[in-house]
Structures are given as structure tokens and as C-alpha cells.
Amino acid sequence: MAKILIVEDDEFITRMLNLRLSMQGHEIEEAVNGKEGMEKALANDYELILMDMHMPVMDGHEATLTLREKGYKGLIVAVTASVMSADTDKAISSGCDLYIPKPIGADFEERIENALARHAS
Amino acid sequence: MKKLYQIGLRGKTSAVLGGLIFIVLIITSFISYKQSQSVVERIAIDLEQSKFVLLKHEIENTLSNHHKNLLSLHDVPPIQSILRARANNNVDPQNGDTLQEWRRRLMVIFGAFLANHPEYQQIRYIDVAGDELVRVHAGNGRDVVMVAEDKLQNKLDSHYVTETIKLTAGEAYYSDVTLNREQGVIQLPYLPVLRIASPVHDENGQVAALIVINLSTERLFSGVLNETNGVQRNIVDNKGYFIKHADPSRTFGLERFIDYKFSTVEPFLAELAKSQDQFMGLHESKNELYGFQKIYFSPQDKSRYWMLTLNVPEKVVFSGISDALNKMMFVSLFIGLISVVFIIWFVSSKILTPVVVLASTAKRLQRGDLEARVDASSTQNEFQTLSMAINAFAENQQHATHLLERQVAEQTKRLSAVIDNVVDGIITMSDTGIIESINPAGKRLFGYSDAEIIDENVKILMPEPYHSEHDGYLKHHRDTGERKIIGIGREVTGRRKDGSTFPMELAVGEIIMDERRHFVGITRDITERKKAEDSMRRAREVAETANRQKTSFLNVMSHELRTPLTVILGYLPILKDPQQKLSTEMIVRIASDMDLSGQHLLKMINDLLDISKIEAGELHLHLEEAQSVDMVDEILRKFENQAKSIGVLLVNDVTEFSFSADVLRLTQIFINLIGNALKFTNQGAITISATQNQEYVQFSVSDTGIGIKEEELPFIFNNFHQVDDSSTRKVGGSGLGLAITKRLVTLHGGEIEVTSDVGVGTRFSFTIKQ
Q1: Is the whole model's pTM more than 0.90, yes or no?
Q2: What is the ipTM of this complex?
């Protein structure tokens, strides 16, 4: 099972994501903004980071960009409620490997598993 | 004056034309004379050379014949018989005849031979030791002298003997041409002799004797003639002495001890002869044709030759030919002169006179005397046609000029009317920028009168920095042709007399008038247009800003609506799963989160509905009486817990009064303002106060929060505006709270305003009309 970091400013969403992924047996850690998420990512060894894009202090784009600039190679999945194509493109160009829109569906766990499997190979 | 002019033209033309033709004639004649002369020279040289070659061949042929004659003597029987007899005690062993008999027979043969060949002087048979065996020579007339045995001599010391015995059978030795000598003394009269000798071989093939023929060269060289007209043809031997000369006393200098050699007479030719076999050329200073041709007479020895020499006086060479040439030249000059006279007469009378007449008429026309006409009777043929054409042209010109003058006058009147009445300012100036004219519109535009502006530099119509730069620009244009504004319309700033400036459109054109360059500037005041453009631009900017805000709002609303939905929809798959084994506690927590998210969603949807209702004018107030203190107390109670949790004091500082308002909407206004205040305040207090007068009730909500930046203040009541697009749910809301608030205040006939100090606090106050 994978070690996953959830970077999300909305505590309700964080709790929901944490519950769903924990029930799959993943080990979950949390960060409330991009800055904290980035620090945790560099200090730990996560197999996957779920990154919200709209956050105070440091948003997901900046956090992802900085991580990639520092050579972070781990899997980063953007999870955001924005439906503007410019925002989704921006997430990928910032360095995210995958984009999952909010609200998340019943297939969320499956998509996470697939991303993990692809990244492992 | 006119008369002199006419004569002058004719005289000059005749002189120049005649002179030119005459010069051309002279030059042509001279050139053709020179060319003919060189052709003649070449022909003369070729001719003399041919003669030389013929002479050479003749001499060579003659020598060859002598050689054959000599060889024919070898085959006569006595030749071998004498040798046999001498070797056999003077008796021929073949037939027993004595040497004496054979010698007599040979003498008879030699004598007959001499009689048939008068050019031969002597024939001898000489043995290899030099002893003459037989000797026969020509006597006077047709006589032949056979020399007696006791008179025979030994000739071993003679060059022809020693040289001949070295030869093989069939070859011949040719001696130098020398004067004949008898017993060592030169015979008189001089007899130039050539000796031809050939060896005789005995039966064993050994050289045993030789036959020698003495040949008088008189006949051999008889073709080499001198002529009375000074043509000299001589022969020189290879030692340089003449062996044949026009003056016989000059010959055989070597033998006669006279120093007369070819090299002294013709040093140039003598030098040339060292390196070449023939030469023919003209001697410039001696005016003669001279040359030489070598004849190699000895086949065995190439160093031995005779040289034919030639001297021909030039007058002889060109005689006859020169006469013909001179005659030809005189005839052509004569014909040329006649032609000159005729041409001058023709040009003068048939061309010049009519031209002078035409010219004087044309000159009068040129001076503007359009009445001038050509007197056609003074001219003829083509000139009559030309005269009539000129007259017709003059009439046409006169007519056209009248017409043109009228048209120009009309056009000018029309054009100046146009220029005076156009709305655009039209200014003409010199290429140095000095104003030459300005139309009324231009004067109105810039506020100058004619007197004030004519002859001024156009730069007085320009504000700085163009005013100072203009001279440099014009100079640059004059020097390089580069253009910044000429021919290109553009918007610039103009300067009026009073110093004020205005935007204007300027087009500058270049015109060439009287061979000088001028500029025409056309200007138009575009102040009004600029104003219209500016207001249009501002309107467009406002519209674009609104559009951007709306897009931004939709994006934010979409995001904000999805966030609570994400929570609700995110939990559902877990709850729906029949296999789930969630604890009761967990289910309660999930339900609570879903509830709160649902509430938040509902709040946003209500805000949206409110705003769209207000925008559509469908929100109606339900006014009722209210008590100020009670109402505020009730509202503050709603925030009691929230304020307590963050440690902020809520203060009700309103005085008691009753007033009229839609309490529900008024409460909504307070909830928005107090809610906002709580979001941005971490410590201190939120104070509600109120005052009233006849017309208005005024409420204010003050906090001790972070404050709002001054640049944000103008926008905070706008629809769809959020202080920070990425604010969290804790701080942010729908972005419609203040917009709704302002609309609700407006609905109450009041106004809302805000003051704020960053880091100190914010104060909202609003009025409600009574």
C-alpha cells in the first residue's frame, strides 16, 4: 500500500479524501497549503501527492513547479474544482502527472491505483 | 542687324562646310596615296625577289649541266686506257696500244668537246701526283690548242687537285672564281675562271687521276645584268670580293690587291649575310631598293657561296606607278573641289536662305509676336510645307494660349474658392520651412492673421520638442531625402498663437514649383474626434472589465459550488457500499460534514438568487417598525459563539430609537457586514453604532481587523468582486455579500460607505431613509 500526501486547504474535503484512501489501506498524511505540502514532500518519501490548486499562502501550481525545479520525481496528481481548461492545462504544465476534477467520482480509488501502477512501471 | 546675321550664317556655313570637305579630301587622298605606295613597294620587292630566285636557279642549273658534261668525259675509253698504259710500261695490256696513242685520242676528244662548248676555256687530265697528262685549251676564235707533252706542268700545289682527289666517284669540286693565270701571271684581258674537277678511279677503285674543266664565268653570270638606269646587279664571293661588278676594275680585289669589298660598300647587307641567305628591302636614306641572294655552288661545302647583290634606285622602282598615282590624286582633288563649290552653292541657296527666313519668323514667335508669319514665296518644296506648318502652328498656339489663359483663370478662381472655404488648414512653405501662404481655415485653427504668420518659420505652429527639432529635421530631409512626415499622414500636436496645444491630423506633400521645392501642409483639428475616441475607449475598457469580472465570478462560483458538492458526493460511494463496516461515530461525523457542506451550498445558491432578483428588480421591501437596540442585540446573538471562539468582543453601541425598515433585509445587511468583520478580525472588538435624524437612520459596523488596502476600496461593493480570488472558505464567501448589501441599502433609499486603515480596522456605515 502506498504512502500518500493530501495537500488541500478545505478541511471537509481533506477528511473525505483521507477516509476514502485509508479504507483502501493507504497511509495518509495531510498538508493545508502548498508551502507545507512542499516541505513535507521533500522531507518524506511519498508515492503520490494529491495536490489542490486553489490554496492560500502557496497554491498548488507554485508548489508543484517548485518541487519539480528541486528535482522532485514523485507522482503528483492535481485535484481541483476549477473547470477552466486554462487551469487544467496550467496544472499539467506546472508538472502534475495527472488531473482529477472535483467532485471526485466512484472511480477515484481506481484512478489512483492506475496512476500508482503506471508510475511504478 | 538681321541682314548681317543672315550673311554671317551663310558665310560661316559655307566656310566650315567647304573647309571640312576639303580637309576630308586631302586626308583621304593622302592616305590612299600612302597605301598605294606601300602596295607598290611590296610588289617591287616581290618582283625583284622573284628575279633573284630565277637567276639563282639559272646559275644552279647551268652548274649542274657543267657537272654532267664533266662526268660524261669520264666514260670515254682513253681515260682508263691511259691509266692502264702508265701502269704497264706505257702500253695498254688490253689491246697493246701505247700511252702516246691514247693521249692523242683523248686530246682529240677534249678538242671536240671544247669546240662544242665555247664557255669552256680548258680541259685537262691530271694524275693523282699533279702531273698534267693531257691539256687542251681554247685558242683564238674557234681554234683549239693541244698542249705538247713537254709543255705540261705539275699542278700538285693547286688547291683543286688536292681537294678533288678527296672526293668519291660522281662528285665534283668547284673552285673559287679567280682570274686566269698563265705560268703564274694573271692573263690579260682578265678572264674570270671557275674550275670544275672530278676524280677518276682506276680499275681497282683507287683515285688515280682527275679531269678539270676551266670555265669562263662570263657566260655563267651573263643573266646577272646591270642596267643603264642605275640598277646594279653584282656578284660577291664568300670572301667578300666582287667577282662581277658593273665596274670591272672593282672586281677580284684579293688577287689584284685592291681593297674594294662588299662589306665596305654595303656594311649592313654584309652583316646580314652572315646570318641569312637572302634579303630584300628599302634603304630609306639612299632611296633605293637593295638586297642579296646566296647561291651555294659547291654541293660538298656549304661555306662556299656566291652572293647576288642588288641596288635599285627608288625612282626606278616606282617609276610609272607613281605617275599614275599622282594623276589619280589630282583628278580626285579636282572633282572634290568642284563638289565643294556645288555643295556650298546648294546649301546656301536651297537650305540656308529658307532656314534664315524660318528662323527669323520663329524668333518673332518666340518673343511672343504671334502675328508673325513666314513669307512662303521665299521658300520652296519641303520648306513651303514647313513654312505652312509653322504658320498653322503659330495660329494654333495663339488660339490655345487664349484658351489656356481663360481656363487657368477659371481654375485659379475655383481653386482659391475651394482653398479659402475648406475646413482644413492649408499652409504652403519653402523648403526651409518659411510659410508662404495660409488659408482662412489655417488662420482660424492657429489663431494668427496673415501679417503675423507669413514669412514666419512653420515651427512656430509646433510645441516643444518638435519646435526645436524641426530645423534639423528639414535639413536632414534636404540632405538625405529621408522622410518622417512628408507624404505620410499622421497625428501630431499643434500650437496656437496663445500657446495652447491641440491634437491635429497633418499631411505634408512636396511640390516642385519654379524649379524650387515647396511643402504643402494640410491640417485638421481632431480635438473632438480625440474626445469621442477617448470616451469610446473608456466605455470599451469598462465593458471589458465587467466582462472579465463576470467570467472571473463564474469561475469562482463554479469552484465554490463544487467544493461542498465534492464533500457530499465524495462520501456517497462509501455510504452506498453494502460491504462498508463504518462505525456509528464515523457515520455521524460524515453526516455532519455532509450537512455543513449542504448548508454552505444552500447559502451560496440563496445569495445568487438574491443578486439575480435584485438585478431583475424583483426584490420588494416589506417595511415595518423596529427598535434599534433590540434588533442589533438579536443580530449579535447569532455571532456570539463565533466571536467568542476567536476572542473578539461584540459591542452594541446603538442608541434606542424606532425606525422603519424591512427588518429581514436589514438583518441580512448586518449579517454580511458583521460576518465580513469577523473573517478579517483576530482580536479587539466589532462595534455596532447608530444615529438618526429626520430623514435618515445611520448604522455603522467598525472592527479592529486587518483592514482593506486603499486600492481595493473602490471595488469592494462591485458585483462579483472578491478581495482575493484564492481566499479560503474560512475567509471567503460567495463574493456577493457586499454587492447584495449595497443593493439592499440602495433599496432602502440609503447609501453605504467604507473607511479603512490597514492594520487598524475597517468601518462600514450606511443610511436608511425614513
Answers
A1: no
A2: 0.92
